[in-house]
Structure formats: C-alpha cells, structure tokens
Amino acid sequence: MVAPKGQTAPAKAGVIPIRSTDDGIHLSNSILWFDSLASGQLSFVSSAEIPNTVKVPQIIATEETLKLLGAQKNAPQTNNALVCQYNRPFSIGRLKMELLPSGGVLGGASLYVETEQGRLLYAPYLQTQKNGTVRQMQLKKAHTLILNAFHPDPNQALPNRKKERDRFIDAIKLALNNGQAPIILCRPTAVAQELTKIMSDEGIAVAVHPSICRVHKVYEACGSPLGKYTPYSPRNAHRNKPVIWPAPTKSGHLRGPLPEGPIFLIEQTSGDTQLSPALKRTVERFYFSHACDGVELREVIAAVAPKELYFTGPYAKRYVEEMKTLCPKVRPLFQNDQPTLF
Q1: Cα angle at 196 between 195 and 198, to 5 degrees?
Q2: What is the mean pLDDT of the chain?
Q3: 243-272 residue pLDDT tens
Q4: Which residues contact 194 (CB under 8 A, 6 or more apart)?
C-alpha cells in the first residue's frame, strides 16, 4: 500500500513509521524529529555541523553540541533544550531513548530509540576510526537503522587514515624545512581540531583562524586538549607556523583573504575534485573525513544487524542498490515528504 504524498502509511507489526522531509526526518505518530531545523515540536540535533540555526521549540542534544553551536554563532533559538549525556537512557512519553557517541565531532551523537514497534538507531554521521580528540563511536543492535550516504561511491574506501596522517606530517615538515608555512583548508569543526592535535603531537606549533580558535576553546573546555596553537592575526605574521583556515563553502566563498603560503586542501570525500580559482595555490590534497565511507558502513550494518536499513543523503539510491543484500529491507529515504515506509 502506498501512502499519499505527505502522509505515512499505517504502521505494520515490526515496522517503525518514519518519513523524510526537506527539514529532517519525522518519527510518525510522535513529537520526535531527527535533525529538523524548524519543523515539529521536538528535534534531536546530532552534531554541531548543521547548516543553519535550529528554530524548533525544543531540542535534544549533548552539552558539547550546544556549546559548539554557540561558539559558531549558530546557537538554537530556544532556551528549552533537553541536554543529555551519552549512555544515560531517558524517556519522553512512550519513547525510550539513549544518546551514543558517533565518533566524528565533539558532542556528536546517534540516537537510539525504543518504540512500540521496535528499536531504531538514527546514525547520520559515524566515524569508526579513532582521532584522539573525541569519544570513540558506539553502536547498539536495532530493528531499524538509518544511515547517511555521504560519500559518492559506496564501494570505494578512503585512504588509510594512519597513512594519511603520516603523509600529512611529512608534507608539513618538508614545507617548513623549505621556509614555507602551509595554509591548511579544512572543516572548522572536527577536522581542524584533529589536525591541530596531530601537528602539536609532532612538536609543530600552529596558528588557527579566529573562528576555528573559538571551536578549539570549546574542545579544551570539554576535556579534549589540542596542544600548542595561537589565533591567527594579519597584524602578526604566523612566523613559519602552518595556518588552519576554514575550507571554502560550496559556493567557493572563503573567510577573508588567505595568508601567503602553499595551500594544503583537506577533503572529505573522493568526490571533491573541482578547485576554484581561489585555490590555485593548492599543492597538496589529503583526505580526513568526519564520516564513514561505504566500506566502513558495511561493518556498521553488520554490527547493528538491522531488519530494515534506510539511507538518507545525496547518494541514498546508489547505496541502496549496492547494499540491498545486507538485510531484508534496504530502501532510500527521499525528501519532499515522499512516502518512505509501507
């Protein structure tokens, strides 16, 4: 049976009714939304890496996520936040919930929900590999698993993270030995902190963009020391220090003119191939993603052992096609209020 557009088909035994919209995912017949910015009454915010300010009346998030949103001047427009810790179960109505560390960014979480129809794990951004700045990812077995198809090719593994770290450090040291201070363009949360710690552990002092410095301070206040770094100022030359700078937006916008020096571009996925004219000084490209690639997601699926597997994100349809044999039901979650479970 197909539900009319904008509605969810009646729940069957063992089926958890959810729908995907342009503004997050809704657990039907409940007040709970997942990563909604403006829809509904209650939204779980999975991490501080959200594009805009959250405007729903009430949110569920970790304390670290709220602090990071404030540091990024993107604090939710509500004083009614349900601040939760990892591994501390709580209930709202008939829903029993628990936040699990997702492993990619400080405060980032997956949401485990026990409903009358079964157990659901919403895990949009998982990182299986340790990075030394946040708690390692945790999983729970669930009937329904929702993942994000973030990387274009579900069969392609990103470069080995340890080898990429070693290659990155070697390139930094070579540039410094040649009298050059690289400009490192990367995500201002998660990746910038990981790279700061990597370089600091090697005895390399770092300068960071002021917006990244604010995020660094939250990490350290929450018990995640990053080592030696200073805020970058154009009045004070970085004096042979690598500079970490926010990566350009999708439109190519950069936060202010870049300092002088060769550009080291930190990419999230193998699909990041186009360089804007502003990045013509790029001499090195590295991969440090905050999210699992398709190969790692297969390990996640095996650990959770779901009966229903759903993919959201830009490559959902491709992931469904490639992973349709991994559990009894594998389907995409489309946006625009298309029917999802029936």
Answers
A1: 60
A2: 87
A3: 999 988 665 667 778 888 899 999 988 655
A4: 131, 132, 133, 288
What 8-state DSSP symbol labels residue 147?
E
- Using an 8 Å Cβ cutoff, are 217 and 241 in contact? no
Q: Which residues, including other chains, have CB under 8 Å from residue 116's CB and lie 6 or more apart? A: 94
Please tell me the pTM assigned to this model. Answer: 0.89
Tell me the C-alpha distance between 113 and 84, whole Å.
14
What number of other Cβ atoms are within 10 A of residue 130's Cβ? 12
CA atoms of 326 and 174, how far apart (whole Å): 45
**DSSP-H helix ranges across the chain:** 63-71, 161-177, 191-201, 210-221, 294-304, 316-323
Of 30-34, 214-218, 289-293, the least confident: 289-293
H helices then E strands: how many in the chain? 6, 19
| Alpha carbon distance 230, 41 (integer Å) | 41
**Res 52 pLDDT > 90:** no
* Token digits of residue 338: 């298309």
What whole-number distance in Å separates Cα of residue 232 and Cα of residue 218? 17
Helical (H) or strand (E) element with 285: strand 282-287
Tokens of 321: 């096609």
- Report DSSP letters for 23-42, one per residue: TEEEETTSSEEES-SSSSSE
